[in-house]
Design a protein that fits this description.
The chain is mainly β. 0% of the residues lie in helices and 63% in strands.
Length: 97
């Protein structure tokens, strides 16, 4: 489950719920304009002294607009946040705050 939040005209925050996963079980990458968040978590199941290994793969992909870039990815208490902004074009006016 995810939420897309517009922070301003030039930035977005994508919040993805990843309950039960740790930071080291997650991977975020951008390739060919597609942001992919994935997890490859190993779970052990014990039955009659036999341990079966299950490798579930969970993934979400999002197509980024040609003018969007990923600035920062953070993780806190089962929520992964991806901060994105528009790329500045050469000669673009920058607001001074």
């Amino acid at each position: 489950m995810y939420n897309l939040i517009r922070s301003s005209n030039n930035s977005l925050t994508l919040e993805i719920a990843v309950p039960g996963l740790r930071k080291d079980e997650l991977e975020a990458k951008v390739e060919n304009g597609v942001l992919t968040i994935s997890s490859n978590r190993r779970i052990g199941v014990k039955e009659d002294y036999v341990i079966n290994r299950i490798r579930p793969f969970t993934s979400e992909s999002f197509t980024l607009g040609p003018d969007m870039k990923v600035d920062l990815v953070t993780y806190d208490s089962g929520i992964l946040r991806v901060l994105m902004s528009k790329r500045m074009e050469v000669g673009s006016r920058i607001d001074i705050q």
